[in-house]
Each structure stands twice: as C-alpha cells, then as structure tokens.
TrEMBL record:
This is FUSC family protein. Signal peptide: none annotated. Keywords: Cell membrane, Membrane, Transmembrane, Transmembrane helix. GO terms for cellular component: plasma membrane. The keyword Cell membrane applies. Belongs to the YccS/YhfK family. Residues 87-195 form the Integral membrane protein YccS N-terminal domain. It holds the Pfam family FUSC-like. Residues 587-607 are annotated as: Disordered. InterPro entries: Memb_transporter_dom (IPR049453), YccS_N (IPR032692). It comes from Gordonia lacunae. Residues 339-463 form the Integral membrane bound transporter domain. The chain crosses the membrane at residues 41-65, 86-111, 123-144, 151-171, 340-361, 373-392, 398-416, 451-469. It is a multi-pass membrane protein.
Length: 639
C-alpha cells in the first residue's frame, strides 16, 4: 500500500457515517416550511376538517423535504414535475382492496420503473420517490378514500407551497450560487490587474482568489452530493471551477503578459456585469485576452467560439438504461415487494411505514443505501423519543400546531446537516401531525409502531438491497475509472491533433463530468462498511491524480500553438497512448495499489506543460500498480 493511501479503520467508518456538514440556518426556507406545513393542519383541526388539512400539509411536507439549496427556477421545476406525478400516485391507493398478490406485483413494478427514471434526472429522482411514498400512504390509510380527494388536496398543497416560494423569490434578492461566482470572477480580475500593474508581490490577491475558488468549489461539491440523480447544473459548476483554477494558474505564472492580463481584467469586469444583470457579456474580443478566459466563459455560458449546435434529434435522444441502473432498479423492486409482503403479513400497526421506509432509503442515487438505512433507524428511534416527550408536555390543537411549525422550521437546516438529522426532526413532525388528525391514538403507540416498522424496513433494505449482492459491497470504481481513462486519452489525442474546438470542448466536459461523478461516489461510499469503505479510501488518491492529469491536458491545450505541427504534439500523442494503455491495467474488481514506475521519456521535453503532464501520468501509473495479484492481496488486507 502507498503511504498516501489512507488506511480504513472502524473509527474512521463511524466518523464518516455520523459526519455532519456545517450549515447556516436557511431563514427563508425555515419560515416557508413552518407556515406551509403547520397552517393547513392547524386550520383544519380548528374547523373540524383535520383530514383535509392533513393532506394539504402532507403535500407541502413532501415538497419541503425534497427541496435543496438550488436556484429558484430549479425549485419551481421540481414542484411542477413532482405535483402531478404524486397526485396521480394517490390513485394507487385502490390497490388496498385488490388481491395481495396484485398489490405486491404492481407496487414492485412501480418502484422498479421509478428506479430507472431516477437515473435520467435529479428532478425525476425526487418526484418518483415522493410518488412511491404517497402511494404507500394512500394504500395504508383508510381515510384516503375516495382517492381523488387526496390527489386534489395534494395539488392544493403544491399550489400553497409554490405561492410561498414565489413570495420568497420576490423578497429575497440573494442568489448564493451567482454571488459566489461573481466573487470568484472579481478575485480573478484583481489578480489580473495586479499582474498588469507589474506588482511583484501577488500574495494578497492570490490568497483572496484561492479562497473565492475554494468557496465556489465547496458549494459545487456540496450541491452535487445532495442532488438526487444526474444534474447538469453542478456538472457545469464543476467545469467553471476547473476553468477558473486554470485561469488563476496562468495569471500567476512568471511569464504572464501584462497587456493580456489587463485585457483579461477588463473582460472579467464585463462578465461580472453580465452576471449581475442576468444577461450575457458582449461579444468576445478576437485577441488580447488569455485563452483560459475563453475556456472559463465557455464553462459559464456554454458558447464556445467555434461551437457547432447539435441537431435537435441528437439533443433530445435518450439512451437506454445501462446494466448498473437496471440492477439498482431491480434491487429497489425486490425490496419493495418484500416490504409490501411484510406490510400484509406482520401484525404491526401502521405497517405501510415499512414500504414507505424502503422508498425513502432504497435510493442509491441519493447516497449510500447502507448508511441511509442505519441513519434512518437511528434518527427514527431518537425522533420517536422526542415525539413522546412532546406528547406528554403539549395539549390542544394550537400548541400541537406550534410544535409542528417548530419541527418544520428546523427541517431545512437538518436536511443540510445530514440524513440522521433529517430523520431526527422528520419523525416527531409526522407523529405530531398524525396525532392532530387521529387524537384518539396515543403518540407512544404511534412511536412504537414507527420504530418497529422503520427497523423492519431498514432490515429489508440492508439484507435484500445490500448484503446479498456482492457487487453492492464494493466501491464499484474500476469500471467507471477505465471509462474515464478512455475519455481522457481521447481528449489528449484530440488536443494533440488540433481537433476542432467543439470536439475538444466536448471531450473536456465529458472528462470532468466523469471525474466529478467519481468524486461524489467516493464521498458517499466512505461511510460504507468494509470492503466498500476501505476500497473508497484506496481510490481517493487515484481519482485525485487523474484529476491532475486532466488539468495538465487542459493546460497543454491552452499552451500549445498549432499543436499538430510541433514536437510537443508528438509527445502529447505518445502520452495519450499511455493513458489509453492504462485503461487495460485495472480489472473490474481491482483495488489500486502503489507500485514503482520508471520515469517517462517525456520528462525531458522542452515544453513545461508536457513535462508536468508526464510527471502526473507517471504518478498515476504508480498508484494503479502493475501486478493484479498484488492488488487483490492488498485489497484483502484492507478489510
């Protein structure tokens, strides 16, 4: 093992499992969540229409629990997709009177379909999960009949939620993502002006720019980790971060041209002004600015100078689901079938919470299945204790409504912290909400049933969705990593032969998108028990080294002039061949292992960009290793 490969330890796993993310209090979301969730059920309880209020509150609760810190446009898009899909799912409650076999088969098919759709869009991932959840509720709650009523009331809740969201968007002028990007461009412009002025000490400007880049990068990674399923927004943000880093490196170079730096600073000001006015910057000058600034603008606005628009048919074409997505959907379908079987056979009150728990936990695109199951159970137990304490202390619909508002206000902050905190606040919120609708049923009894059904659902997920499938207990990085190397090799080849700008740009986007997804997958897998968690730790330095290789290829693309006719192009082509050859050194189940690697012949290249690329490529080869048997043995030692 390499000294730079972190060793897996149980304490490290527990810290990863229980880790929380520092999060500021989202005041606007908290107020909106409290008002939209608590007011319908409170008004309903005071006017003897508790069930009506409960269904409206359930709609606002599901939408609030599915909301993340995204731009308002993306949040409205989530509402418009989720609301009709969830309303339609209410009619699946008719399965409660169907033969049990029919119920199990239909809901397993619905869950499997939702699992496939989740692989195409983060919006669909959240919407399908909410649809399966509401289907479980309408099947298990007799008060849901006739099923058109909860469907209509859910639409009413969605309208209330969207109205409150529109008010917040009109009042709140803060846009965190845009403001963070503006701060980054301003910091880069300050570095460019200092370089243009001939300053020899750029420490202050460099520090400010690095801090701005780190802040933007952290927001990007945090948002990507929270997003359910693929999301183009954070793929674009990752490309912006990479391009900004490359531009900063060029501005800080010892041979940076003062005139080009001045032109770059002026152009960055134009970009900032365009972002502040939600428009596009004026036409890009033909010369005078740095090449890497053009790459940054292309990452922000997606308008490469020689970009060729794809035909409409190619833009909308959907690919068939791959084996990994189908396998994930199949496991979700199996767990759902077992959950409804348990709901039918086990004498547990509120047994519909078993398939509800499976629907919430068994979503691999939202994070580690094992970790979510563990955290869901732990959070539910602690939340049930809180709910019992609240039931003892409060009495009456007004006080109960205030408790619902309090828990609802804490929910957005808890969601940003961790899944454990989310379950901790969501559990008493749902229990107090049900207690207001069905006051004759004691909260301790509801809490006992809630804990029992959550544990049963968690056991189903862990056993049937995780333990019995050997593939799920590994990091599953070798295959995607080989695919990334293939795309990276193609990227380097296209740079070497001076391929059209739109081709090189597409290659670059594909490489960084795959690397971003790999980084997110590793972050989620760290909390898995061995061998998956151990393998994730072993893969971290490999992915980091691959990111640096990609950066060096991008640097070579920006520095080479007429690349197809220079000696550097031949050297870059040879290094691209090395990247392609590396693809065959990692089998589908290998874990990386450090092995000594001789230096590259390109180390002596007169081109510094080629030398840096050769160094990083040699380091990557050393991390991957050469002996598959040795790697397998080392994999066993990790566990």
């Amino acid at each position: 093992m390499s000294d730079e490969t972190p060793a897996w330890r149980p304490t490290v796993w527990m810290r990863s499992l229980l880790a929380t993310t520092p999060a500021p209090w989202p005041l606007g979301r908290s107020i909106r969540s409290a008002v939209t969730i608590a007011s319908p059920v409170l008004i309903g309880a005071l006017t003897d229409h508790a069930v009506v209020g409960m269904w409206i509150s359930m709609g606002t609760l599901l939408l609030s629990a599915g909301e993340h810190a995204l731009p308002y446009r993306a949040r409205f898009r989530q509402v418009t997709v989720s609301a009709p899909m969830v309303a339609a799912a209410c009619f699946l409650g008719a399965l409660s009177s169907a033969p049990h076999v029919v119920m199990i088969i239909v809901m397993a098919a619905v869950a499997g379909t939702s699992g496939v759709l989740s692989g195409y869009s983060g919006v669909l991932s959240i919407a399908t999960m909410q649809a399966v959840v509401i289907a479980a509720i309408t099947i298990g709650v007799p008060a849901a009949r006739p099923y058109w009523e909860p469907a209509v009331l859910f639409i009413a809740g969605a309208a209330l939620y969207a109205s409150a969201l529109a008010i917040e968007a009109a009042v709140n002028r803060l846009r965190p993502q845009r403001d963070s990007l503006v701060s980054l461009l301003l910091a880069l412009a300050a570095v460019a002006r200092a370089q243009a002025a001939g300053n020899t000490d750029l420490a202050a400007e460099r520090s400010h720019a690095i801090n701005a880049l780190d802040a933007f990068d952290q927001m990007t990674i945090a948002g990507r980790g929270l997003a359910g399923g693929p999301t183009t927004r954070y793929d674009r943000a990752a490309r912006v971060s990479r391009a900004a880093d490359q531009l900063l490196a060029r501005l800080l170079a010892y041979d940076a041209d003062r005139e080009r730096s001045a032109a770059t600073a002026s152009r960055l000001d134009d970009c900032v002004n365009a972002l502040n006015h939600r428009s596009r910057p004026p036409a890009r000058p033909s010369d005078g600015t740095l090449i890497r600034l053009a790459m940054l603008e292309d990452a922000i606005w997606g308008d490469s100078p020689r970009a060729v628009a794809l035909p409409p048919a190619e833009r909308v074409r959907l690919t068939l689901p791959g084996p990994a997505l189908l396998a994930s959907a199949g496991r979700l379908s199996l767990c759902t079938a077992l959950a409804y079987t348990a709901y039918i056979l086990l004498p547990i009150a509120h047994g519909y919470w078993i398939p509800l728990t499976v629907a919430l936990v068994m979503k691999p695109d939202l994070g580690s299945v094992f970790s979510r199951a563990m955290l869901r159970c732990l959070g539910t137990v602690c939340g049930a204790v809180i709910a019992v304490a609240v039931a003892v202390l409060v009495d009456g619909p007004v006080v109960s409504g205030l408790c619902v508002a309090l828990f609802a206000a804490c929910l957005p902050w808890a969601m940003a912290r961790s899944y454990l905190w989310q379950a901790l606040f969501l559990t008493p919120l749902v229990m107090v909400l049900l207690d207001m609708v069905v006051p004759h049923e004691s909260v301790p009894d509801i809490s006992e049933a809630r804990v029992a059904t959550t544990v049963v659902g968690g056991v189903i997920v862990i056993v049937a969705g995780y333990l019995i499938w050997p593939a799920t207990r590994h990091a599953q990085m070798a295959g995607p990593f080989n695919d990334t190397l293939a795309v990276l090799g193609q990227y380097a080849h296209d740079v070497a032969v001076d391929a059209p700008a739109d081709t090189v740009s597409a290659d670059r986007r594909a490489v960084y998108r795959r690397l971003s997804d790999a980084r997110t997958t590793l972050q989620r897998t760290l909390s898995e028990p061995p061998p998956a968690g151990a393998e994730a730790w072993a893969w971290i330095p490999v992915i980091s080294a691959t990111e640096r290789v990609a950066d060096r290829v991008t640097s070579a693309a920006a520095s080479l002039t007429a690349p197809a006719t220079t000696p550097s192009a031949a050297e870059l082509s040879a290094l691209a061949d090395e990247l392609t050859a590396l693809e065959h050194r990692v089998s589908r189940r290998d874990v990386p292992h450090r092995a000594p690697t001789p230096p590259d012949r390109a180390d002596l290249s007169p081109d510094p960009a080629i030398r840096e690329l050769a160094d990083e490529l040699a380091h990557l080869r050393s991390l991957i290793g050469r002996d598959g048997a040795t790697r397998s043995a080392d994999s066993a030692s990790l566990t």
